[in-house]
Structure to design on (155 residues):
């Protein structure tokens, strides 16, 4: 009966080893596989978060999209908590200023690292006229289908 102490000891060592390993793995680019399509046909096809080389070590949300029929769009971008409530208003980003490319565009949106670490999702609302948000036709959304939702952590 004196040998049975070894089983809990092995379990404790295995759990501690796993915790040390998970804390020591380097941060990588987080790629989220969700997509969303707005009613005008604007389609967000890929969202990933990668570190920047800037001194403040902010992150960059790299958003790939195909523009729809509506011209002059801007995007309101928010970092949300687990209940999809806004933690940080990242800002409003005009498509023409922050996105580059021809048929498919790549948008680079700066995000503060400390805000990103506390978030569970990224919300993107599209509009031409402030206050008149475009509806999301496909994809995960909230705000009565007026804000597309993308996870900030890989599932």
């Amino acid at each position: 009966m004196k040998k049975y102490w070894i089983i809990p000891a092995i379990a404790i060592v295995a759990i501690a080893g796993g915790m040390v390993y998970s804390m020591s793995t380097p941060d990588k680019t987080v790629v989220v596989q969700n997509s969303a399509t707005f009613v005008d046909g604007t389609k967000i096809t890929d969202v990933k978060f990668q570190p920047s080389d800037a001194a403040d070590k902010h992150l960059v949300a790299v958003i790939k999209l195909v523009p729809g029929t509506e011209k002059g769009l801007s995007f309101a971008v928010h970092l949300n908590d687990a209940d999809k409530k806004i933690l940080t208003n990242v800002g409003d980003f005009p498509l023409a200023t922050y996105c580059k490319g021809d048929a498919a565009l790549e948008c680079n949106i700066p995000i503060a690292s400390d805000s990103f670490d506390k978030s569970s999702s990224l919300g993107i609302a599209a509009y031409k006229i402030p206050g008149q948000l475009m509806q999301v036709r496909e994809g995960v959304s909230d705000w009565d289908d007026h804000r597309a939702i993308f996870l900030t952590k890989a599932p």
Residues 6-24 form the longest helix (19 residues). The longest strand covers residues 43-51. Residues 25-31 have pLDDT under 50 and may be disordered.
